[in-house]
Amino acid sequence: MAKIKLTKGELKRQRDSLKQFKRYLPTLQLKKQQLQMRTMEVRKHLEHRLSALYEKDGAVKKWAGLLGDAEIDLKPWINPKDIKCSTTNVAGATVPVFEDISYETAEYDFYETPLWVDKSLEELRLTVKMIAEVEVVKKQIAILEHELRTTTQRVNLFEKVKIPECQENIRKIRIYLGDQQAHAVGVSKVAKKKVIDKELALAEI
What we know:
- This protein is mainly alpha-helical.
- It has one domain (8-183): Helix Hairpins, CATH 1.10.287.3240.
- It contains three helices and two strands; from the N terminus they run ααββα.
- The chain has helices at residues 8-63, 75-78, 116-204, and strands at 80-90, 93-103.
- Strands 1-2 form a two-stranded antiparallel ribbon.
- Helix 1 (8-63) runs antiparallel to helix 3.
- It is rod-shaped.
- The mean pLDDT is 86.
């Protein structure tokens, strides 16, 4: 703890700081609660999306081998052309929100290609879309967790360091100033007694 000046000016400064910390602390605590709740919600959402993705992936693998028989490479048309995301504000943190995904137009001979290839392309694109959404949700969690750690550190700083420090400083300054005032009163009484004693002595002459 840094050494403080035991003065009235420092007492005012410490009181002002304490008032400011106590005013900001409830806001930080509310932000922490909001971030905790939102982080839990997003984690649950990630679990649901991962579960759906694993289910979809298992279903795709059952017929994926058939694609070799079609003698057509679908990779160019399942690679995302663009992943569209928006942003939202969560307790001061800007997080991405998955919106949509777009692909290049599939160009192949519909007459020469088996009908199930169309359905395969649709399912593969859906799988890729789900993967993209999962990645965005993971980014949400990373941002929220970082913001939560920072906010928690600030709450702890205010609760466990700044506010107790100010309170202790105020206590020390008050004690010192009180002692100084008591000492000044004592000196004043002694000086006054000396003046009275001197006046009485002069009166007796």
